[in-house]
Design brief:
240 residues; nine-stranded mixed beta sheet; 6 helices; 20% helix; 27% strand; disordered C terminus
């Protein structure tokens, strides 16, 4: 995380205020003065302001059922964001995005390392969606999604899994998270998305009893579930 963002998230001041502190030489990292607000911190760095240690916050992980009609952002000047549904915990942010008109499983945290692992293509974390569509869901269209389609911007997108659930609904699993990716893939094969709902991230599923707008804190075991089935050999521990 950037040094200025770290200090701002700790409540030291606004981004503008903490940048001023940094440039005044009042901030140290491991007892060395750092004058660059964009300095990248590691988890083991000890940050001090005017000689006082800035303790890292307790990591929190929130499972949230995003309702349709809200922007997945901490702040937006034009639309209501998801933050109005969530507890007032400094420094939390959504892991990835869901379109404004989409709904479903969203993780909110203050753990940047965890968020990076969930989003990064390197980790290939599965995201599963149920999509209601207009148009006929044929095996040919499903096969095209599985084999991959080229989007207008040239990005080649492939569904890890695609299957018909009913006459007007299908399930699709992807491991990337490009802008409007699922809708764009659906459009390329000649279907129109009517409703989009994310029901799973990795091994973590959206609880069936949960309603739009509701949230709950995740346990350490549930946090680890996000990485279940992932074949990367790196350390998967993100809690601490």
């Amino acid at each position: 995380m950037r040094l200025d963002r770290y200090l701002s998230n700790r409540g030291i001041g606004t981004r503008k205020e903490v940048r001023k502190l940094i440039k005044q030489g009042r901030v140290t990292v491991d007892d060395e003065v750092v004058l660059d607000p964009a300095y990248k911190l590691s988890e083991k760095d000890v940050v001090k302001v005017d000689g006082g240690v800035i303790d890292p916050p307790k990591k929190v992980y929130i499972l949230f059922y995003k309702p349709a009609g809200y922007v997945t952002s901490t702040n937006d000047p034009h639309s209501e964001t998801i933050m109005g549904f969530l507890p007032k915990i400094k420094g939390i942010f959504p892991v990835g995005r869901l379109d404004k008109d989409a709904e479903g499983l969203l993780i909110v945290t203050n753990d940047g390392k965890f968020a990076h692992r969930v989003i990064s293509p390197k980790w290939a974390i599965e995201k599963e969606y149920v999509v209601e569509v207009e148009g006929e869901i044929t095996e040919d269209r499903l096969e095209r999604l599985r084999n991959g389609v080229t989007l207008r911007d040239g990005f080649f997108a492939r569904a890890k899994h695609a299957e018909k659930l009913s006459k007007d609904a299908l399930k699709i699993v992807i491991t990337e998270g490009k802008y409007h990716q699922v809708k764009r893939m659906i459009a390329v094969v000649g279907l129109k998305t009517v409703r989009l709902k994310r029901v799973r991230i990795g091994g973590l599923e959206l609880p069936r009893e949960m309603k739009p707008g509701e949230y709950r804190f995740l346990t350490e075991e549930e946090v680890r579930k996000v990485f279940e089935g992932n074949d990367q050999k790196e350390d998967r521990t993100c809690t601490g």
